[in-house]
Write a structure and sequence with these properties.
Blueprint (H helix, E strand, L loop, with lengths): L1 E7 L3 H11 L11 H4 L8 H15 L10 E9 H7 L6 E4 L12 H4 L28 H27 L4 H4 L8 E8 L1 H11 L6 H17 L1 H11 L9
Antiparallel strand pairs: 1-2, 2-4, 3-4
Length: 247
């Protein structure tokens, strides 16, 4: 899995703060320089003022200004299962790699068992992995070997059947029905800081599934380069408060 920031609003935190100051100014923010709009905010520098105002907004629950900037991320190699969880967040826009128009007829089925095309969950290879509905891992060696063999054989057979159906003339949009839910897909997502913090409230939590937790952490890491004050405060003060920023 990889996450890359494709495009984003420039100076997003200036936009957040200008939008917030609009609510408390008699002058029109459209004609007001940033320094003037921020004059009453505590801080010796503009950067300190931005940081302090953002912390105040998040502390008060004034989340509206965080909806004005937006960022677009490219996500590579998540499972269809993870994609389904992500796209439940309706305050974001998505484009998903099509399995109607993209055929995986050149993938080596033997390589699938090694992680190509299909995401391998940790519980297929790690005897100490503890899932959400388990009290403990510590699977014995024989059981672990059998579990891994069954998983690898299943995904390899699915890809072989898929490619055979393509060879028999079945269209990719129909042949894909035999592929597992772990099949990798690429996604493009656009969302605003408030929406991303809400995704993180739900999906970076300890009881979320491992793959979407990893994805969310990577999104937050990328967003922290874009909106540093916002996500520094979120990480330190608000992370894992489930539903805190629910729309």
């Amino acid at each position: 899995m990889r996450v890359r920031l494709l495009e984003a609003t420039e100076n997003p935190e200036e936009l957040i703060c200008q939008s917030a100051r609009n609510d408390y100014m008699s002058d029109w923010v459209g004609d007001t320089p940033l320094d003037t709009a921020m004059a009453s905010v505590d801080g010796d520098t503009t950067d300190e003022k931005l940081s302090n105002l953002i912390a105040q907004l998040l502390t008060r629950g004034h989340y509206g200004p965080f909806e004005h900037p937006s960022a677009t991320f490219a996500i590579e190699g998540v499972s269809r299962s993870c994609m389904a969880q992500l796209t439940r967040h309706r305050h974001a826009s998505f484009d998903v790699q099509s399995m109607r128009y993209v055929a995986f007829d050149d993938v080596d089925p033997a390589a699938v068992a090694e992680g190509e095309l299909v995401v391998t969950p940790p519980s297929a290879t790690d005897p100490d992995w503890v899932g959400r509905n388990q009290d403990a891992g510590d699977v014995d060696e024989e059981t672990m070997a059998e579990r891994e063999a069954v998983f690898q054989a299943s995904v390899r057979r699915a890809v072989e059947d898929y490619q055979e159906l393509l060879g028999l003339g079945m269209p990719p949009e129909d042949a894909r029905f035999v592929l597992p839910i772990g099949t990798e897909v690429n996604v493009v997502i656009t969302l605003n800081p408030r929406s991303l913090m809400h995704v993180a409230d739900m999906r970076a939590a300890a009881d979320a599934q491992w793959e979407i937790r990893d994805l969310t952490e990577q999104l937050l890491d990328a967003a922290a380069q874009w909106c540093p004050h916002t996500f520094e405060y979120y990480d330190a003060e608000m992370k894992h408060r489930k539903n805190r920023l629910a729309p």
